[in-house]
Each structure stands twice: as C-alpha cells, then as structure tokens.
Amino acid sequence: MVDILSSALQLEAAPGIVLHVQRFRPTTPCAPILLVHGLVEDGRIFYSQSGKGLAPWLAQLGYDVFVPDLRGRGQSTPSLQPGMQITQQQLITEDMPALFDLIEREYPGKPFFAATHSWGGVWLASALIRQPHYLPRIAGMVHFGCKRVIYQRSLRKRIMIDLLWGKVAGLLGRIKGFIPARSLGAGSADESCALHRDNLAWMNGGEWRDLEDGFDYALALDALHWPPGLYLAGKHDLYLGHVDDVKAFARELGNHDAQIVLLEKGTGCSRDYGHNDMLTHANARDDHFPLVRSWLLQHSN
C-alpha cells in the first residue's frame, strides 16, 4: 500500500469566494489530476469518509489528486444562501482557472490530467475553450456520464427532467430563493437558481453560447486542437448520461482522440452501471477503474 496524505486546501477563486480543495497526495507522485464534480453534488462524489472512491484509488496509483468543491457547495465558503446567484460563467471564468493555476503552481509547466462527472465535463470543457492558453497543459480528460444536451425523449426523462427538475424545481426555487435539490432527492447539494436556469438552457438543446455575454463556445472550439478523451457511459444511465448523449458530447468537441466505453454487464463489468454508481459502487474499482488507469498510462508523457 502507498502512503497517502489527505489534506484540505483553501483556494480563493474570486474576492470573498474560497474553494475547498481536498488533496490526495502519495509520497512520490507521478502526475497531477483534477477531478471536477457536476450539478447537485460536490467533490465527495469522488471520495468517501472511509477512504473509498476514485480519488484515493488514483492516489494509490501514484497520482496527486485535487478534488474541489466548486463555489456554494460542500466545504467551500460562503455556502449557498437564499437569493445567492451563482452562474455558469463564474464557474467557467473564475473557479476553473483558479484550479488550473493551483496545479500550475504545484507543477510548473507539467501536463496534468482531468476527470469529470456529469455536468462537470461541460464546465471543464467550457473553461478550456474560453481560456485556451490552458489547453497545452492538458494531457487528457476522462469523462464519467458527461453530456451537454439530453436528446432522450423517454417517459422517465419527461418526468424526472422536464417535470421535476425543470418545472417543480424551478417553482420551488422561486419560493425558497435556491433549488432544494437535496429535499427533492435530486442530488447531494442544493443549487443556485441562476445555475439551474443556465443548466436548463444548455441541456435542453440551446446553443453552446454564454447566457450573459454571448461568448460562442462552439465557434471558438473550431479553432482549437482538443486533447484526447475517455468517455464512459453506464448502460443503466437512462437519461442523465445516456450513451447516445455522451457520444453527442464527444462529437460536439470536434475531431480528437475519443474513446467511448459503455459500462454494461458481460463486457468486463459485473453490472449495468448508472449515473452515480459508476463512481460510487464498490465493484467500480475492479470493473472499469483499471481501464481508466490503462488510458491514463497510455496518454502519459
């Protein structure tokens, strides 16, 4: 067993905004990797109190792992309050660059990997498109259940996304001043009404364009050379990260080295994985985490 030091860092992303970053560092790290959570969750999707999860698993392999709680959630300060407006633009232009700069300070000039879950993949990609000077530092990205647009039109999607997340959550947000995702059983972290609005605009098929200043991410992406990516989709992920929507996200990122893997029973997996359990299930470390390891090694300098 490799000795792992787990420590908490405090990172200022903007005046008055301090991100909690949990770091898992082996004695002799081989490379840094940034793990970015998605909507209605925080960094704990990547690690548990008992030391399980992707983050400590990667640290055991020798990676120096940085796991932030983005603003307004987890142990970051200030915590989400009624009426607090957190937008995607703030995460894309302030939180993400602050994290990139943190890794640059720790590993000057050295490439690093990133892994994301769900909507975190959209935030990471958007940040790199908008601030492309960081792109040469990215050795590769691993995306767990990441999509930008939900194209599925199943009954379950209409109930859970269109009705519950779109209409009911929006109504409660107007009443409470924030989206009570935890009370709704929609996630482990509540959301800002502004972030909820931004998410719906993109997820329902809106142009990949900033809602505040009109920055055109799709147009800017055309001029960029995109890093390699591993895209994992669960067979039982029926609407939050359906394999067809994961493929569409990979295509939207343009011509690049993209490997798409469906996590289903009988193809190296012990079960059909869903949206969250592809990271949290005990069998993940034996089923597909080794695939992640092989992919990272393949793309290491």
From TrEMBL:
Keywords, in A-Z order: Hydrolase
Domain of life: Bacteria
Serine aminopeptidase S33 domain: residues covered: 29-145
Pfam families in UniProt: Hydrolase_4
Keyword Glycosyltransferase (UniProt): no
InterPro entries according to UniProt: AB_hydrolase_fold, Hydrolase_4
MF terms (GO), sorted A to Z: hydrolase activity
SUPFAM superfamilies linked to this entry: alpha/beta-Hydrolases (SSF53474)
Protein's UniProt name: Alpha/beta fold hydrolase
Organism for this UniProt entry: Halopseudomonas laoshanensis
